């Protein structure tokens, strides 16, 4: 039911990034599907850099909004972008 009007979510992450893991776990708990791209691939890293202007993980793109930095710093903006209430 939450999927009906949820914008596309794309995450640029690395396998060893704790904030990336926290972000993916949280999205999964919220029932939000996401696409993940691995920043350890140089082509993916270049794509992320040209698209967002940053080279940090995780980078989360929701629709046309870009979030980056720690999961804690992204979460309030992500909740708003995804239309989630602060209940969880």
Cα-to-Cα separation, first versus last residue: 17 Å
Radius of gyration in whole Å, from Cα?
A: 12 Å
Number of strands: 4
What structural class do helix, strand and pairing data support? alpha+beta
The ordered string of helix (H) and strand (E) elements is: EHEHEEH
Largest sheet: 4 strands, mixed
Shape descriptor: globular
Into which percent range does the helicity of residues fall?
Answer: 25-40%
Uncertain stretches: none
Fraction in beta strands: 15-25%
Widest sheet, order of strands: 2-1-3-4
How is the topology of this model organized?
Blueprint: E1 9-13, H1 18-29, E2 35-38, H2 42-52, E3 59-62, E4 65-68, H3 71-82
Parallel strand pairs: 1-2
Antiparallel strand pairs: 1-3, 3-4
Keywords:
88 residues, 19% strand
Can you walk through the features of this model?
By secondary structure, this protein is of the alpha+beta class. The chain has helices at residues 18-29, 42-52, 71-82; strands at 9-13, 35-38, 59-62, 65-68. Strand 1 (9-13), helix 1 and strand 2 form a beta-alpha-beta unit.
Quick overview:
With 88 residues, the chain is an alpha+beta fold. The protein is 40% helix and 19% strand.
């Amino acid at each position: 039911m939450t999927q009906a009007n949820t914008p596309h979510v794309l995450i640029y992450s690395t396998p060893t990034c704790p904030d990336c893991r926290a972000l993916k776990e949280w999205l999964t708990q919220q029932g939000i599907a996401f696409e993940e791209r691995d920043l350890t691939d140089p082509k993916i890293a270049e794509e992320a850099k040209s698209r967002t202007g940053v080279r940090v993980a995780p980078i989360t793109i929701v629709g046309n909004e870009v979030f980056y930095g720690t999961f804690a710093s992204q979460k309030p903006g992500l909740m708003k972008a995804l239309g989630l209430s602060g209940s969880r």
